[in-house]
Amino acid sequence: MQTQYGSDIRPGGYWFPSRCQPEQRIAIIICYRNREQHFKILLDNLHPFLQQQQLDYTIFVVNQHGQELFNRGALFNIGFIEAKKYYPFTCFIFHDVDLLPEDTRNIYTCADQPRHMSVAMDKFDYKLVYSTFFGGVTAFKTDDFLGTNGYSNVYWGWGGEDDDMYSRVVHKLKKPITRYPIEIARYKMIRSNEHISAPANPHRFEILRSQYDFKLD
């Protein structure tokens, strides 16, 4: 990694600027399964993107093994727990492996409210999918993420955990989400003929409608 992304990247995917002292220590959590090529493309783009923003950041990767359905929420929770053991980060960014930020004005830091970073994706003609959409890339200050009790662990398969997190932010944390303007928060989705998307969770809408106690999950 040091040779490919710059000699000043420390072991473990840690980088910090030498000419300034950033206000936030940022942990970027990426989760995936069987998408090594996507992950490599993301790193090729993300490291120079973050360094241009002069950020103090560390990238953490959580890779799911086994034959169970993919559980994005649980993997992000694992990444958060493990990253906190490594350093008391002040900002956590949860990042899909197939999304590439396009505009360096989309600053990878945390605000006083949870932030939805990936507002406009090329897959959706650079339009917000729906008003409560909270998937793709999100940013939380540490206390805000703890205040939501993290992502739900019950969504096995594609979909549901991002809408669930939106409800946690609004109803449990009692904060609005923030977004950069749509012309800034733009992302390109990596496409591959070799990757097969995870099956959708057939119970995701039932779980969302059930309004179960966030404290129990």
TrEMBL record:
Coiled coil: none annotated. It is a single-pass type II membrane protein. Pathway: Protein modification; protein glycosylation. GO terms for cellular component: Golgi apparatus; membrane. It is found in: Membrane. Its main location: membrane. Residues 6-110 form the Galactosyltransferase N-terminal domain. Residues 115-191 form the Galactosyltransferase C-terminal domain. The keyword Amino-acid biosynthesis does not apply. It holds the Pfam family Glyco_transf_7N. GO terms for biological process: carbohydrate metabolic process; glycosphingolipid biosynthetic process. GO terms for molecular function: galactosyltransferase activity; N-acetyl-beta-glucosaminyl-derivative 4-beta-N-acetylgalactosaminyltransferase activity. Keywords: Glycoprotein, Glycosyltransferase, Membrane, Signal-anchor, Transferase, Transmembrane, Transmembrane helix. Belongs to the glycosyltransferase 7 family. This is Beta-1,4-N-acetylgalactosaminyltransferase bre-4.
